[in-house]
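User: Hi! I'm working on a homework problem where we have to compare a predicted structure to a textbook description. Could you give me the structure for the chain below?
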Amino acid sequence: MLSFRPLGLSDAGLVRLVRAGERLCDFTPCVLLMWRDYFHTEIAHEDGLAYLRQTFSGICTAFCFPKRVSDAGNPEEGIRRILAHCAETGERPVFCNVAAGELEFLRARFAVIRENAARDWFDYLYDAPSFAGMAGRRYAGQRNHIHKFEAAFPDWRYEEIGAANFADCAAFLRAFYSRRENEEETSAFSGMLYYEQEKLFEILANYGVYGLSGGILRGGGGRVLALSMGGVLGDTLFVHTEKADIGAPGAYQMIAREFARRHTDVSFINREEDMGIPGLRTSKLSYHPLHLIEKYTVELG
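Assistant: Happy to help. Predicted structure tokens:
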């Protein structure tokens, strides 16, 4: 039987070794650590593999496809270990956040009795140079918003997140979430928003542990108008959070472009999922993703 334990900040070194594959955001160090309590994430580390188990809505438990943390890791043997674990504990062998390539792997070697695509949780993947440049007619809308921002805040500047501005970042986030509390579109996610707020404060307090980079936009006399944080894995920049003052026209488009421009060494940008929120989906599609990275829930027999 696998020996699972709660994932904690002390596991930051281990989760940095996770080889996510297929550019999924779910297995980046930031997402695993930030959302560990919300999804009650547990981890077991054996034979070069990280085994992850999560609980959704407090009732549905699912495993993740075993992730290599060293060359010794054998995912096929890992799946067999999970199946043996389930046979012993009575748990159902359900897997969440399964990438398309992992689904093919399972189909070829095991009895897949159920598979469901989770469209609301597909990741949006963009071409990094195109996103940072925002040139051509397809980005005309974004450039118009950026021009409005520049006109409204001629004193704007981009500033890297660090110890000198952590307090300003925290104050900006408190004001941001205070405004969001009563928005109808996000009311169904109020619990998740409250959790996200608390964990962003945790990130600021443990910035080195999370290993992120980030930036803020200042304007209007030095006020923080927008904030973005993310991390690079391989050829991909993962944008984990992006917040802006809705009273600052074009701030969202400006911080998205400026943060991308600080990462010229990547080929792709993953801006995570839309969670089925209509406005968020419209926004993410407007930036013209290369494609959506599919995720599946899979049950084995």
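For your comparison, note the following. The mean pLDDT is 95. The chain has two domains: 5-121, 123-272. Good luck with the assignment!
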